[in-house]
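We modelled the chain as a single entity of 771 amino acids. Its sequence is:
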Amino acid sequence: MKHTILIAYFFVVIAILYNETANAQQTFFDLNTIQKIEIYFAQSNWDFQLDSSKIGNDGYIMAQWVKINGVVLDSVGVKFKGNSSYDSTYLKNPYHLNLSKFKSQSYQNLTSIKLSNCYADPSMIREVLSYNILKNYMDCSRSNFAELYINGSYIGLYSNVEDIDKQFCSNHFYTSSNTVIKCNPANPGPSQKSNLKYIASADSSAYFNLYEINSTYGWNDLKNLCDSVTNHPTTINTVLDIDKTLWMLAFDNVSVNLDSYMGVFCQNYYLCKDNNNIFNPVIWDLNMSLGGFPYAGYSISSMGTLTVANMQQLSLTQHSTDTYWPLINDIMSNAMYKRMYIAHAKTLTTEMFASNYYQTLASQMMATIDTAVQSDSNKFFTYSQFQNCLTSNTTSGSQIIPGISNLMGARVSYLQSTADFNYSQPVISFVSNNNPSPNINGTVTITAHVTNTNTSAVSIYFRFNNTEEFTPALMYDDGNHNDTLAGDNIYGVSFTMDYPTLQYYIYAENSSAGIFSPQRAAHEYYTITASIPVAVPGQVVINEFLAKNISGTTNESGVFADWIELYNTTSIGLNLSGLYLTDNYSLPTKFAFPSNTMIAPNGYMIVWADDGTSTSTAIHANFKLSENGEELMLSNGSGSVLDSITFGVQTSDVSMGRCPDGSGAFIFMSTPTFDAHNICPDDGIITPNKTINIVKIYPNPASDLLTIDLLGATAMHNTTLSIFNLQGQLLFQQEINREKTSLDLNTFAKGMYIVKICNDKNSLVSKFAKQ
């Protein structure tokens, strides 16, 4: 929301606006710019308080303000973080800043900032370099560099790493409320591992010292996952994302990242359960990657200390038969998974290390931070050691930290000499489709030319949007699947475009090796986009908005932000690309919708009016709504207005919405209906005092049976239940006369569906997913 600014603060405001404008082009994780973070503590003994909190309850100390690239936020939570990287005697400890701990606020839509102190790394770049390699192959934190000042004193150069928080989970895994497990033992040791090994005849409390739960629940989820990994390896694909697991293990092995699942403690990774109830591994804490941590572990009692030569020749199948690494056992004992793992390891080695891309990136990073490193009097190594970190080993106590290129040059030579890297892979070429822009419900055929493969070993993995898991299906070279002639090495498969997008990749293998197309799959994939009509006046309207959100629904960052709800009045999906929102009629193109922004038939869409950045899971307009009243307009930017409203002073947590949806006049709504049917005074199906969604649908997502609960509305007359797909096609319809109805979903394909319940008083709309 916007607040009235007193004239007395005019010059302060101008200065703040100037700073914001000057930094508008600088994103917080821009790799080419060092971020400047300043903390001011009013308390003179702030360091003692932080140490005491770290040793005690690990709580936050309030900083009077934090300034990030010139933008000031007051009342920020600050604490020390880290295990081996923290010490009360250090002048340069790692920090965790919680921007919203004491006040609802964020910076560039972020509420959490984690700063690592480059401990045990003479290069100062290991963590940032590793994340910027890893990001090409799996979901991981963004990372760059920051200079930290406290009460005006320069503390030093830090790596700035994106937190694995609710916002990260929402952005990457499409839920912020599911189980999140941090795999770090409380007291790591050879016998204290976060290795996903099932603990027989024990309840979930046996896992308390080996893992952390970063969600409101999850211990039983973890126990069930460990049971699958240890005792039922053939089922792990039903509980764990296999492709991300393969990329994690390939990265850890190739880059000699042993402070990880592959090392002695099996630690430093998260497991985030997505909206499909599948766990996704996320690598964490890369400050000792690239050989900085030499402990591989060989048994329950061994640290397994490696020399630099040992690390250069670390086996691709490390721990493949050691029962204390059950996840690696599962992958290496499954012939297809192992071939996929080797294919990923080969791609990573070729693209990032054999090409010397990592050296180019490392040199660029070192040039960016050179001056900051020289000025950092609290760093753990000398400036000379920093300058020579690529080619020279560094002695630190009893440990030798390898020069990065010294390690990886020899490692590439070793990997390229292994039998696994030299097996003849299939060749996938000429991946194409016969209809690059099909109509909805049209047919598209995908073909690929594949050689050196087994006849039945070419598969396509497909899904219809980012929120789904990829599903495998065979491709055929039999002349019967639009694949031209039988036996000509052209494999084909056809799909009906029931959805706006189709995403896919191809995997082929023979008895020795496998290969993906694209080779970075499933992180990268091919996409076919259907031709969708663009919304015109009368089809999409402003349906509801809340301009003073104090305690209602929060955005994915946990912030009580203003929001605008749009409504599609038609029974077809519509594209909002080319449309604009504004809070100023004289600036009609203030916010442009991202490309291929789709709104479902008879569906709702939320736009957060919080001056944030749009993501793959949420749309954020670059303005806020004024609680004192202003204008709001949806248009095509060139004179065609789809909808508009001029509103007056607003009340806390009271929205304005149309009654009925899509066509009625705006009224004040003491119970906002975020992303749902508006509750109007004359609603005849549901009583007005309901504060939850009008229709409760569970479980959602569902697999076999769906229950539709009308929440107390019984003995209704002439009420019809209808199910539509996202293109508005009617798939099911029946009359209902009771509060709860169960629906068999076995005849429904996987995907999203619209539920519509109508009688002579009104219509109620909701959504569900079939998995």
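As a brief sanity check on the tokenised model: The chain is about 20% helix and 30% strand. The first helix runs from residue 10 to 22.
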